[in-house]
Specification:
The protein is of the alpha/beta class and 294 residues long. It has 2 domains: 75 residues, no CATH class; 160 residues, CRAL-TRIO lipid binding domain (Phosphatidylinositol Transfer Protein Sec14p), CATH 3.40.525. It has a 5-stranded mixed beta sheet with strand order 1-2-3-4-5. Helix 7 links the parallel strand 3 and strand 4.
């Protein structure tokens, strides 16, 4: 029998009430919602409790919240996404990925700000990839037990103004606030350059107080207070090698191939700019040395 932690211990009557109202509200709208997630909520008490937690245990507002989540997930096409729905370049670059745990055993999602640049054409699929990776961490944490959550790490090492995308930062923040169940433990911002301090201040104005309290800042000296070396990738001073965190699923297609298949909608000009961007990242991530050419 699973022990329900105190922060999720709502009365059985609350769960029954929320489920009953969800069925009443959504039974004729299954084609407009993520019906698979609704079915899970009907049977998984802990998952339902985590969504109810986001509305402080109130049944009425919980129903409204869950309904909006189910509709949003359907609009975004999230129920149909798999790891092969995304360009192979996303995995090759390794700008967003799941890897390791923090010192408390919570799964970690890593985002390397240095590898991002706002390029029209791939923004929508990049947003979906971000959501996909964060949901993976949330599901992994839930599978470990109700006491676990997950952590989001923004590595800002060598990031510049060219890598700062306020719209993307606001998208990630608003998505976590409005469409995720309770589960994220905290956000860790690593080595924020002073050049991006103004961006941080602007982003902070968009965040509610409870979100700000979850944000922690660290440098290379204090990073290991949160995540042990054996759970960090090599570029953060950890023991994780490239092949440990840049994992390539079978069946991937390139950005151009996905566009040819009609899965992505990009103009030839956007494709050229995107491929030029990928080439620059390859040069940064996989520099050619005299040794490698011998």
């Amino acid at each position: 029998m699973t022990v329900v932690p105190v922060h999720l211990s709502y009365p059985e009557e609350t769960l029954k009430s929320v489920r009953s109202k969800l069925v009443e509200k959504l039974s004729n709208k299954r084609s407009e919602i993520d019906s698979a997630l609704l079915d899970r909520l009907m049977n998984d008490d802990l998952l339902l409790r985590r969504y109810i937690k986001r509305r402080n245990g109130d049944p009425e507002t919980s129903v409204t919240f869950i309904s909006s989540v189910l509709e949003w997930r359907k609009r975004m096409g999230l129920p149909d996404l798999t790891e092969t729905s995304f360009p192979s370049e996303f995995y090759e670059v390794g700008g967003i990925y799941n890897y390791g745990t923090d010192t408390q055993g919570n799964p970690v999602v890593h985002i390397r700000i240095r590898l991002f640049q706002k390029i029209e054409g791939i923004l929508d699929i990049l947003k979906k990839f971000s959501i996909y990776q964060m949901y993976r961490a949330d599901e992994l944490a839930a599978s470990k037990g109700p006491e676990y959550g997950w952590v989001l790490v923004f590595d800002c090492t060598d990031a510049s103004i060219a890598n700062a995308d306020i719209d993307m930062a606001n998208f990630v923040s608003s998505t976590l606030r409005n469409y995720f169940p309770s589960g994220q433990k905290y956000t860790l911002v690593h080595r924020l350059p002073w050049l991006l301090s103004a961006v941080k201040t602007l982003v902070y104005t968009m965040l509610p107080g409870y979100v700000k309290k979850k944000i922690r800042f660290c440098d290379e000296k204090s990073l290991n207070e949160h995540i042990d070396k054996e759970n960090l990738p090599d570029y953060l001073g950890g023991s994780g090698k490239t092949n440990d965190y840049r994992v390539f699923p079978d069946g991937l297609s390139t950005t151009r191939d996905l566009t040819t298949k009609g899965i992505l909608t990009m103009s030839e000009d956007q494709l050229v700019k995107t491929n030029q961007y990928y080439d620059k990242l390859r040069q940064f991530l996989y520099p050619v040395t005299e040794e490698s050419t011998k």
